[in-house]
Write a structure and sequence with these properties.
There is one protein chain. The protein folds into two domains: 2-362, Beta-galactosidase, Chain A, domain 5; 368-699, Glycosidases (TIM Barrel, Alpha-Beta Barrel). Helix 5 (403-415) runs parallel beside helix 6 and helix 10 packs parallel to helix 11. The chain starts with a helix and ends with a strand. Strand 18 and strand 19 form a beta hairpin. Residues 1-39, 316-320 and 504-511 have low confidence and may be disordered. 52% of the residues are buried. The chain is α+β, with helices and mostly antiparallel strands. Strands 7, 8, 9, 10, 11, 15, 16, 18, 19, 22 and 33 form an eleven-stranded antiparallel sheet that branches. The longest helix has 22 residues, at 678-699. The chain contains eleven helices and 41 strands.
Length: 750
């Protein structure tokens, strides 16, 4: 059987080529260096030392029990995916421990006191006869005993109809205390040393592509980004980003990484074969990593890590330091690899695969709003400033958009022919902006009081306007009954509140540092507020931060980062059920199935210099299912380009505008609202909405089926029904096969 497979693979290798972009949907035009690369994939047969451990109608799983290596054969075309490069002996770049890593399935980072150490499953386990294996249903389980570190880490691989499931069994890791000789007070004594795992790289070379191969790695940076194989960017640091953003509860880690990974997915395309990997369990403590050939090894690789514990290096003694508890929720760190071949080996299929996963596994359903070309407006009620009253410094509210102002704004847009209004109203309650935790609605007299708010909400309801009063149960600085600013704040590992700070140079949150409420307390406050809010019968609410910020409470027995996601889902579910519609900002994956509207969805942007192209992967996943908007266009650096990005990515337009005197925003905590005067921008926002409606009215409610770069600065997006938009970002017109597209303009093709 193996000889037959090998023969088929040799034949396949002679005819597989890197297909031109025009033949594949959702593909970006490769650079010259990509098209000049060898068009053939390096195909390797299954070695005789591997044994079959599982098989189904689509795949065969093999394992080498002496090393821990695995391989998956895709029956459709006989292609083999390996956990470790089969030509690693030819690597002329890797040396020392890095060369050993090419053979490893795990890289283990661990610590004792201030000493941080790293080893891999070859050096620390296999070469010391610490590897054991066990056949299980549909697969195999390995136990890696790291002799020096004192850990046994179990890993298992199983097949199902959709692909390969790879798991680090976090709950089964068995640490042990290692006894060693140490000098204490001038004499040698036996000392029990407690080691702690901090991070594990898992399958760091699965599917790794060689230095002559064509294709790309996909990372979910921003909306999505491609890193071309062998792009020559060896002077840049390798990519590594935490899923769901920064570890804001760890002061020394808060500013060390970007905040742009919203989806727990990554992928690789090599020639006519590709995979998408979905982190299905404990994704909130995952990292996504990528490295190009030529930096440490001759291989291009994209892979996950799991962050089990974190040390806060800012405090501690020379022997001990604050260490978080395990960040994991119950269960394993689970990755699912989905494999694609031929014309489906591209990121269009990756996006469709993840969309299908959200539908089948997470309950994502098509929303009513997804069929509408909506106009998003975000506004702020007012801003607090310092003032002196009889020599006493006080804070007073300067209104920006009162309840009556907002009603007038909505009327003007309706009179201008703007339908499908979606309005997010920030600061509508008394003392709302990150000040104290609210458990019931309150009304600011300067904005119009209770009667004014009731009048506003009735107006919105009677005119079928999607009205989203915003609430924040996460950030706060002021104690109130039941919510202490000290005791109920999420703690850093040193047990002090994990204080946050602004980087804008303004006075931040009323000139104060602020904290995050403990996640379980957020749920308590949210449920208490909901009981009161339902009586208002508004029918919608915007929940700030819950959709985009994840953190731990590092008190002993506190809520872990992995558990926080579960709490956030509970809150979102209850609000969706009780109010009917929930808006979230810049939503992480867990929030998408509960959202009627998602505001500030990332555009095609990435924060890593390692990337070569932007792709609208996020939008591919949710378009036609959930309504979403751009970031506030009037607050971007390039208004016109952002409008075109909305057309390319299928996003609704979004503006942040206020009615009052914007001069009061200077040097305030809202000083980022530098261009938001309603009267100044009203006509332009109406013009832009009517302009993009030419495309949006035809594409709303339809799934994306294609996207490509058809010329420099020119992008095509295809929807169900073969409807497409062609967007030209150049400052001169461009002739395409669909017609001429004007400078900084677009056309709709039906």
């Amino acid at each position: 059987m193996k000889k037959q497979i090998a023969a088929a693979l040799v034949a396949a290798s002679m005819c597989i080529s890197f297909m031109p972009v025009s033949a594949q949907p959702f593909e970006m035009q490769p650079s010259a260096s990509q098209t000049e690369a060898s068009p053939k994939e390096r195909v390797f047969p299954i070695p005789e030392s591997f044994e079959k451990v599982a098989e189904n109608d689509s795949y065969i799983l093999y394992a080498q029990t002496s090393s821990g290596e695995i391989a998956v054969t895709v029956k459709k075309n006989g292609y083999n995916w390996f956990s470790n490069p089969q030509d690693r002996s030819e690597d002329t770049i890797a040396g020392g421990e890095v060369k050993k890593k090419l053979e490893a399935q795990l890289v283990l980072y661990y610590t004792q006191g201030y000493s941080s150490m790293v080893t891999n499953s070859v050096t620390g386990c296999v070469n010391r006869k610490g590897l054991k294996s066990q056949k299980i249903d549909k697969g195999i389980k390995f136990s890696y005993e790291f002799k020096d570190a004192g850990f046994t880490i179990p890993v298992q691989y199983t097949l199902d109809d959709d692909g390969l499931k790879a798991e680090v069994l976090l709950q089964e890791i068995t640490p042990k205390v290692v006894t060693r000789q140490e000098s204490v007070n001038g004499s040698k004594n036996k000392v029990d040393v407690d080691y702690n795992i901090t991070k594990i790289d898992f399958l760091p070379f699965f599917g790794a592509a060689g230095s002559k191969e064509s294709g790309y790695m996909f990372v979910p940076e921003g909306a999505g980004a491609l890193i071309y194989l062998n792009n020559g960017k060896t002077n840049y640091v390798s990519y590594s980003a935490p899923v769901y953003g920064q570890y804001r509860d760890i002061p020394t880690m808060r500013d060390l990484s970007n905040d742009l990974v919203r989806l727990p997915v990554f992928g690789l395309k090599r020639g006519n074969n590709a995979f998408l990997a979905i982190i299905e369990k404990n994704e909130a403590i995952g990292y996504i990593n990528a490295a190009v050939s030529g930096r440490e090894t001759s291989f291009n690789t994209v892979y996950p890590s799991v962050q089990d514990k974190i040390i806060d290096f800012s405090v501690g003694s020379n022997r001990t330091q604050p260490l978080s508890e395990s960040l994991a929720a119950e269960g394993s760190f689970q990755i699912k690899y989905h494999f694609f071949t031929g014309d489906k080996a591209n990121y269009s299929q990756m996006a469709k695969c993840y969309q299908d996963y959200l539908i089948s596994e997470k309950g994502l359903e098509k929303t009513e709003s997804s069929d509408k070309n909506e106009f998003y407006l975000e506004t702020y009620s007012g801003v607090e400033r310092k003032t002196s009253v009889f020599g006493i410094v006080r804070r007073v509210l300067d209104p920006l958009t009162t309840y009556a102002d907002l009603e007038e704004i909505a009327k003007k847009y309706m009179d201008a022919g703007i339908g499908n209004l979606v309005i997010k109203y920030n600061g509508w309650t008394k003392n709302s902006e990150r000040n104290e935790i609210k458990t019931q609605a309150s009304y600011e007299s300067k904005l119009g009081g209770k009667s004014g708010f009731y009048k506003l909400s009735e107006f919105m309801k009677n005119n079928n306007i999607s009205f989203y009063p915003a609430m924040n149960f996460v950030e706060y600085s002021k104690s109130r009954i039941g919510y202490s600013a000290i005791f109920d704040a999420a703690k850093a590992p040193n047990q002090s509140p994990a204080y946050q700070k602004t980087s804008s140079g303004s006075e931040g949150m009323f000139g104060k540092r602020w904290s995050y409420l403990k996640p379980n307390k957020v749920e308590d406050a949210g449920m208490a507020f909901l009981a009161n809010y339902k009586k208002l019968a508004i029918g919608a609410i915007a929940l700030d931060n819950i959709g985009e910020i994840v953190y731990s409470d590092n008190t002993k027995g506190g809520v872990k980062r992995g558990q926080t996601v579960n709490i956030w889902e509970n809150v979102l579910k209850e609000y969706k059920t009780s109010t009917g519609a929930v808006m979230v900002d810049n939503a992480n994956a867990y929030a998408i199935p509960y959202a009627e509207n998602i505001i500030d969805v990332p555009l095609n942007e990435y924060g890593t210099e390692l990337a070569d192209e932007n792709i609208p992967f996020y939008q591919m996943v949710i378009h036609g299912l959930v309504s979403y908007s751009t970031p506030a266009i009037n607050l971007t650096s390039d208004w016109d380009r952002t409008v075109l990005k909305a057309v390319e990515t299928g996003a609704c337009l979004n503006f942040t505008l206020v009615r009052g005197n914007t001069q009061v925003l200077k040097d305030s905590y809202l000083n980022n609202l530098y261009s938001c005067d309603f009267d100044t921008w009203f006509e332009r926002t109406v013009e832009d909405y009517k302009r993009v409606s030419k495309a949006a009215d035809e594409t709303k409610g339809k799934k994306m089926t294609g996207h490509s770069k058809i010329a420099e600065g020119v992008y095509e997006t295809v929807y169900e029904g073969n409807i497409r938009t062609i967007v030209n970002y150049n400052h001169e017109e461009v002739n395409t096969s669909y017609g001429t597209v004007g400078a900084m303009d677009f056309i709709l093709v039906k």
